[in-house]
Amino acid sequence: MTDASNTPMGNPGDILNWPMLKISYRTDADRIADLLPPGIEPGAEPNVNLTIYNFPVPDVPEYGIVTTVSADYQGEAGEYTLGYGIDQESAIFISQETNGQPKYPCTTEYYRMMNKVSARCTHQGYTFVEFNGESTGVNEPMDEWVQNEWWIKVSRAVSVGGPATGYDFPPHVVHVRSKYGTAHREAVNGELVLRDSPWDPLARLLPMQEQLSAHLWWPIFLDRSITLAGPLDPDAFLPFADTISGSRWPGQNGAPPVAA
C-alpha cells in the first residue's frame, strides 16, 4: 500500500491533489512522419505521449487526454500535439480560436483507488484508450525541465457551396514553452490498450510497438508562454487542414476517414 505520509496532501477531495497519468510508447517513425505537416520534423525517437488528467480549467474539473508525438520545429526538439480530448465544452472552441490548441469533446474516466490506477477515454461511442495498473507508491524525484509543444493556428477561407481552397489566416506554428518542477512522481506498472476508433485513430495510425513507461505525476507549474513561432507553407499544409472534431487527426472534410 502507498505510504500516505510520502504523497502530496491538501484539502481532502480537492482536485488539485489529482496526479496526471503519463504514458509513453514507441511507434514506427514513418507513422509519425505521415501525420506531421511540412515544416515540422519527426523527433529523435518515434515516441507517442499520452497524458490523462483531471485538473481545474480555470476553476472547474476538466477530465482529458492529451496526445502528442515527438517532433522538432526549426531544429528545436519538442512534441507535436494531435489532440486534447476534454469533457468541458466551454473550453474547446475558445482554445482552438485563440491559440490553435486542438481541443475536442471526449469522455474520460480516470481514478486512483489505493495503488490501483485506471483510465478509459471514449469519443463518439468508441473507447480508444484503456489503462490499468498498480502504482509503486515510491517517490521518484525529477529535475526541473522545459517542454516545447507545437500547435497549429489556422483559419480556412470562408466558402459557400464547396470546399475552401485558401485561408483567412494561413497556418502558423504556435510554440508552447512550459517549465515544470515535480512535487511527486510514482512509477506505475500497468498495460496500455489502444482500441480501434475512426474518431481517434491511435491504434491504426500510431500503432504501439513497445510501451516505454507509465507514471503518476504531481506537477509544479513554474512558467508558460504561448507565442506564434512562424508560418508553414500554406500550399503544402492544405492536405493537413481537414481534421477530425477539432483535433489534428486527418479527416475528410471534417469527418472521420474511412478505416484502412
Describe the strand arrangement of the main beta sheet, using strand numbers.
Answer: 1-3-4-5-10-11-12
Helix content: under 10%
Say how many strands there are: 12
The gyration radius over C-alpha positions equals 18 Å
Tally of discrete structural domains? 1
Assign the CATH superfamily. Answer: Acetoacetate decarboxylase-like
Structural class: mainly beta
> What is the CATH architecture annotation?
Beta Barrel
The level 1 CATH classification is Mainly Beta
Would you mind describing this structure in some detail?
- The chain has a single domain, classed as Acetoacetate decarboxylase-like (Beta Barrel).
- 9% of the residues lie in helices and 53% in strands.
- The protein has helices at 29-35, 92-99, 202-205, 234-237; strands spanning 20-26, 40-42, 47-56, 61-73, 76-86, 103-105, 107-113, 116-123, 126-139, 145-156, 167-194, 210-231.
- A 7-stranded mixed beta barrel has the order 1-3-4-5-10-11-12.
- Strand 4 and strand 5 (76-86) form a beta hairpin.
- The longest helix has 8 residues, at 92-99.
- It is globular and about 60 Å long.
- The termini are far apart.
